[in-house]
Amino acid sequence: MINAMIFAAGLGTRLQHYTKNCPKALVSLNGKPLLEHCILKLKDFGVDRIVINVHHFADQIEAFLESKNNFGMDICISDERKLLLDTGGAIKHAKSLFIPNAPILIYNVDILSSLNLNDLVSYHKKKEALATLNLRDKNTNRYLCFNKDGLLCAWKNDATKEEKIVNESHVNSNPYSFSGIHIIDYKLLDLIEEEGVFSIIDLYLRLAKNHKIAGYYDTSDLWMDLGKPEELEKAELLIKKLDTN
Known about the structure:
Elements: E1 3-7, E2 28-29, E3 32-33, H1 34-45, E4 49-54, H2 58-67, E5 75-79, H3 86-93, E6 104-108, E7 111-113, H4 117-127, E8 131-136, E9 142-146, E10 152-157, E11 162-165, E12 174-184, H5 200-207, E13 213-217, E14 223-225, H6 229-244
Parallel strand pairs: 1-4, 1-6, 4-5, 8-13
Antiparallel strand pairs: 2-3, 6-12, 7-14, 8-12, 9-10, 9-12, 10-11
Helix pairs in contact: 3-5
């Protein structure tokens, strides 16, 4: 058994006019909402339950799912209408909705990826990690560092020079960008001490001191963050090009 969670509660402020009257999750890409692209990828992979958190225009997301009969899947809504909880708070808030003792595959709704999810899950099991983050090489000011054993050891921001160090292995570590796709063991939920609104990255950094937080390097052909209008437009053109080939 395996759970999935789609982070769909964000305000989508970077998408400007696209999210003026609808949630980011329902912004269209090639004739389908971003949320539908994510659900179909997870359905093809074979997840048993999907939890979707909602906040901005939450009613529209619920109505969309109802109109599609939940795509024939077991889908639960984690309601954050009263307060947007950030990624870590969202996971904690949704705990009661997951199938107990089954791992949780987490997917940002504005990510387009050709990643083979079987590869990520297999690597996670092989490493016997508490969590495994999918990583990419891309230009960014903020990045996660992984040591020679492929375990999280630091977070750094080149723009502000801020650092969050897990242990001394960060000295010879390799920096990567987090792709917005990750998998956690169910037992991680019982280790969350944080309250309210908090980032899952901060949670990972705390847990990495005593647990395996692994990184899986993704070399798949396609990965795009669709949180900006120009990236959404690039993705439209790319998909149309692929469809004509």
